[in-house]
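Q: I have 150 residues here and want to know how they pack in 3D. Can you give me a structure?
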Amino acid sequence: MTGHSERLRRNLVVGGGTGVLLVVLFLFPTSRNQVSSSSLPSATPGVVSTAPGTTDLTVNGTSEGTRYGPVQVRATIRSHRLTAVTALVYPASGGRDREISSFALPQLEQEAIAAQSATIDTVSGATFTSDGYRRSLQSALDAAHFRTGG
């Protein structure tokens, strides 16, 4: 009987330790799901402001979740034209994330300004970031009541 009790005790210890390990793994973020942001702070979605003395309108898009972390942009509109799109939050927790963001974000901004809308192509190799960028930009344009072709 003592052999059976010893095995049962050992199984409980191993099973309990495995359970604790699983809880720790799920509670603590890994490098793949951690989110780093640019030097600009995350902003409240839909906040609309105008720069004093100008006709600039600045609108924050919603933070859009992607497989590698959220993406949030800020759109600037001047005289009914989209003039800038700044990525406030984007995947940057690892070297590969930073590399993808560094080449994809400028391309996405350039395309959005050229298109004057969120209807832009996906950057090859940055599908998830592109999708989050489009959704966040569209939410900013909707909040500003921006119409394509202004």
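Q: Anything worth noting?
A: The CA atoms of residues 73 and 87 lie 4 Å apart. The helical segments are 2-27, 95-115, 127-143.
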